[in-house]
Amino acid sequence: MDWNLNLKRLMGEATQLVRSGQLADATRAIQQTLGEAVARHGPPPAPASTSAHPLHAPEPEPTAGNAPRWRSAHTAQEVEDAVVIDRSTHTPTAEAQPPATARPTASHHPLAEPAGSFTRVAVTHPGARHNPHHYHLYVPPGATAGTPMPLVLMLHGCTQNPVDFATGTGMNDAAAPANALVLYPEQPHGANPNGCWNWFRPGDQHRGGGEPALIVAMLRDVMARHPVDAQRVYVAGLSAGGAMAALLGREYPDLFAAVGVHSGLQAGAAHNVMGALSAMKNGAKPGAATHHAADAPALPPPPVIVFHGDADTTVHA
């Protein structure tokens, strides 16, 4: 098939997958098509004015023979310049958790993930409805023992997972030169059929309970094993993850220095499924977000940056 026609068809299919939120499928489709082209004809010529390679895939481990440089469609768990492994651990109990302002310097801890890794971690939390839970942690190549690092907590949207989110946002690549850790909590489908964070349920909207407490437990699990600069901990999310990020910023102003919300909803915009659908279509009702946690510290809310498309048909701007 003519390369240009094949590429045009490929990009059309990938665009549809991206629009439907299937980022990993889009990536695999691109890699598989490019891999087939390399195997048959060699790599396509690059534009003369382009030095970057946005479609570059990680190289496979050396094998016998002349295998193509592009990975197959069966490597959904791989992210460029990262290694995905499993490690089981137990989150400390609430009494044993370090204070929010602590700055652990335990990157030399035997359970700490190595520099330059992207690790899937299993955790248990006493208050969680489903155990164990998992998160992915990116540790930058420049991480060193005893040097506090900023940390960015990234919350994926519905139908996504941490690997989709890391691939689609490119946050690991952005974090490497900043020497920042990136934490990606994973919402299991057992907690929500579409993998959404339950930002609209009253039990998941308050400090010290539900999903906010679970996510914070994951954060403290990382802080117990890596040197984190407690003054530079940030949370950001997309869609349902954006709504949960807004909740975390409201409920834990002592933990987060700033909040990023992309295509999400304000904290407390709804308190049930019907209210969530209404808020997504028409916006929250006046006063819907009014809330004050009795045990929350008397601190101003962290600064928030909001990104939203004015043609968004899922969550109205």
The gist of it:
The protein is 28% helix and 16% strand.
Key words describing this protein structure:
eight-stranded mixed sheet; alpha/beta; 2 domains; 317 residues; 8 strands; globular; Rossmann fold
Polypeptide structure, described:
The protein has 317 residues and is of the alpha/beta class. The chain folds into two domains: 3-41; 86-307, 3-Layer(aba) Sandwich (Rossmann fold). Helix content is 28%, strand content 16%. It has seven helices and eight strands; from the N terminus they run H-H-E-E-E-E-H-H-E-H-E-H-E-H-E. The chain has helices at residues 3-19, 23-41, 162-169, 171-178, 210-225, 240-251, 273-282, and strands at 86-88, 117-123, 133-139, 149-155, 181-186, 228-238, 258-262, 304-307. The protein has an eight-stranded mixed beta sheet with strand order 1-2-3-5-4-6-7-8, with helices on both faces. The protein starts with a helix and ends in a 10-residue tail after the last strand.
